[in-house]
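Moderator note: this is an archived Q&A kept for reference. The question asked for a predicted structure of one protein chain; the sequence and the answer are reproduced below.
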Amino acid sequence: MKFENLSLNTGSSSLNSNFQNVPTDLNLNYLDIPILFSYMNKKGNFKYSIGPQFSFLQSANMVYFGEEGEFTENFKSNMNSQDFGFITDIAYILKDFKPNKEIHIHLRYYYGWNDAFSDAFSANTNRSSYFSVLLSFPFIKSK
């Protein structure tokens, strides 16, 4: 997430003054566990998947960009440690890549149902959502 004008709020007034109304990034790292239910036509090259996803927050850092440099603040205490949502996935499968080997190209969308923030950082409800493009190489297949 990017914020245009946030201010650092620590116990040091000199440090705070260097990071007032500055651009800020919030970097979130989650461990995602999707449970996908898939359908694929045996003669087709497309696979369709849907299901829930459980996400566990690993780290949350707020990075302030001021004239003096960058300041990174641990922001994990302001975030909910878990997220639950719904995921959809469409994959195109390149079957003729090599004998018994495939390449899967995925287009995935996730929508979280929980508020990302655990406190009153934002008055709005802030849900996670993302699009992603993935490549997978399932070279080990049963014959």
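Archived answer notes: The chain is about 5% helix and 60% strand.
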